Amino acid sequence: METVLFLGVLLLRVIRIQDLALMVSSEVLESILHSQRAIMCHLQGVIIFGIILITWYEGLYLLLSFETFL
């Protein structure tokens, strides 16, 4: 009887440890996913800013070259 009780308690502890491990791993995966989203948003912002900056420089260059042409 004590052996069955001991095995039952041991089984409950194993299940509890597995649940805890699953919960921790899901939190870690969620954190990784969140950081990847943040990195992608940052990269998109950098790319858009780069495009705006290049377009502005090209417009400025064309404006200056047009003025010297006149």
UniProtKB/TrEMBL annotation:
TM segment ranges: 41-64
Keyword annotations of the record: Membrane, Transmembrane, Transmembrane helix
Name of this chain's protein: Uncharacterized protein MANES_06G172700
